[in-house]
UniProtKB/TrEMBL annotation:
One of its GO terms (molecular function) is alpha,alpha-trehalose-phosphate synthase (UDP-forming) activity. It comes from the Bacteria. GO terms for biological process: trehalose biosynthetic process. This is Trehalose-6-phosphate synthase. Belongs to the glycosyltransferase 20 family. GO terms for cellular component: cytosol. Pfam families: Glyco_transf_20. CDD domains: GT20_TPS.
């Protein structure tokens, strides 16, 4: 059965666990991207195309005709692709997460990496195969002139591949990450640069979270590909085709978030946090231990703040949630260890019998995160570089008096910067000073800023983000 709207993403809205006896248990899958898409998909005829990530997923695919899981999922039916594990690993870990993600977040330690040799070429071939599998499945499943929404850096080649198979389709690609400027994107081999850019330009519409990332993509097309770019109209013309470039900021469904944060499990966590913190001021951060989130410099800033302001000793607690991420990559395991080492230094230097200056949690717990938001006096969001960062938007919605210390390199700074305390993410001393300023903001100013932050955070909810991109394909 052909579908009129198709979503292609690496992860799907559900995943499966394979038990010892061969049984399958379904659970909700994915992270922030998948949760956001799951919330807004409401079209009657939507198919979600994703990859099997685990043995349980592969077991479910092999039990389903054609990989179609047509149970009554809230997001509609699913086509799950059984891509060989070795191909998936090379495409997902080696290329998507260890190459394209690093380039667009400007994270390479260039004296040592990247290095593009024969091993990378084998990995890139797997990335092509992986994208080709998605293109073929989408071509098989799409109705005539269906709309296809391809998600993120895992699938940059899919739009052009799909265009070659099905020129009748209306295709969008959306990048949830930043985009690197031409001089940094050119670290990639020239043929890979061309393949990625022309891959996305196979779409009718290429979307980005901010004008800054859209501009960087257009600059890459112009400088590295020789495409004709109209910056005012936001179009890129190459090989006789014109792709429209869209800017689609992503906000938060404030009503849904407030309702979830009022549930009993969140209230229970609030009681626990209140017992730990007492009447002290609370600085909160909530992140995955991704290299771009800059957790170590954030902890160093708090350490400098305590050194510079002994009057705050015993009067403030930093609650830092650093949830493990991508632990199959060695760089991430080491970064998590560095976060834990830094936290121990702060505890060893400043903790007393009746005061824990820092509480570090590394076990993912969404209700506990919502409780921390509600109690926060200050929210620290200091990524090195971030496509948007919804933490910066969720916090002010849940805490009316929360002061936001925000990196100028987060995409959210474009909307929230005027009412945040903006920081250079590399400037530890500057971030320490911003933490002090946030703690000492006059109450009236704190509440006024918070009100404006909440309005901005709710202005572009996920449903509008989704509908605007669908409308661009009509």
């Amino acid at each position: 059965m052909s579908s009129t709207v198709l979503i292609a993403s690496n992860r799907g809205p559900v995943s499966f666990t394979l038990s010892d006896d061969g049984g399958l248990t379904m659970r909700r899958g994915g992270g922030g991207l998948v949760s956001g898409l799951s919330e807004v998909v409401r079209e009657a005829d939507v198919l979600w195309v994703c990859a099997a990530l685990s043995d349980g997923d592969r077991g479910a695919v092999r039990q389903a005709a054609g990989g179609r899981l047509d149970r009554a999922f809230a997001t509609g039916p699913i086509r799950m692709l059984d891509i060989p594990p070795a191909v998936f690993h090379r495409a997902y870990n080696a290329v998507a997460n260890s190459t394209l993600w690093f380039v667009n977040h400007l994270l390479y330690n260039t004296p040592f990496s990247p290095e593009f040799g024969t091993r990378f070429r084998r990995e890139w071939e797997s990335y092509r195969t992986y994208n080709g599998a998605f293109a073929l499945a989408l071509a098989e499943e799409a109705a005539h002139r269906a709309r296809v929404m391809v998600q993120d850096y895992h699938l940059t080649l899919t739009p052009a591949m799909l265009r070659a198979e099905r020129p009748d389709l209306r295709i969008a690609h959306f990048s949830h990450t930043p985009w690197a400027p031409p001089e940094y994107f050119a670290l990639l081999p020239e043929d890979v640069v061309a393949e990625v850019l022309t891959g996305i330009l196979g779409a009718d519409h290429a979307g980005f979270l901010t004008a800054r990332w859209a501009r960087a993509f257009m600059d890459c097309c112009e400088t590295l590909l020789g495409a004709r770019v109209d910056h005012a109209a936001r179009t890129v013309t190459h090989d006789g085709r014109t792709t429209r470039i869209g800017v689609h900021p992503l906000g938060v469904n404030g009503e849904a978030l407030l309702a979830r944060a009022a549930e009993q499990d969140v209230e229970s966590h609030m009681s626990v946090i209140k017992d730990l913190v007492g009447d002290r001021r609370l600085i909160v951060r909530i992140d995955r231990t991704e290299l771009s989130k800059n957790i170590v410099r954030g902890l160093r800033a708090y350490q400098e703040f305590l050194a510079a302001h002994p009057e705050w000793h015993g009067r403030v607690v930093h609650l830092a949630f650093a949830y493990p991420s991508r632990h199959d990559l060695p760089e991430y395991r080491e970064y998590t260890a560095a976060v834990q080492r830094c936290a121990k230094e702060i505890e060893d230097e400043y903790a007393t019998e009746d005061w824990d200056p820092l509480i570090l949690n590394v076990n993912d717990d969404y209700p506990r995160s919502l409780a921390a938001y509600r109690l926060a006096d200050v929210l620290l969001v200091n990524p090195i570089r971030d496509g948007m960062n919804l933490v910066a938007k969720e916090g002010p919605i849940l805490s009316p008096r929360c002061a936001l210390v925000l990196s100028r390199e987060a995409g959210a700074a474009a909307e929230l910067g005027a009412d945040s305390l903006l920081v250079n993410p590399y400037d530890v001393s500057g971030t320490a000073a911003a933490l002090h300023e946030a703690l000492t903001l006059p109450e009236q100013e704190r509440l006024a800023r918070g009100q404006r932050l909440r309005a901005a955070a709710c202005a572009l909810p996920p449903q509008r983000w989704f509908d605007d991109q669908l409308a661009a394909l009509r």
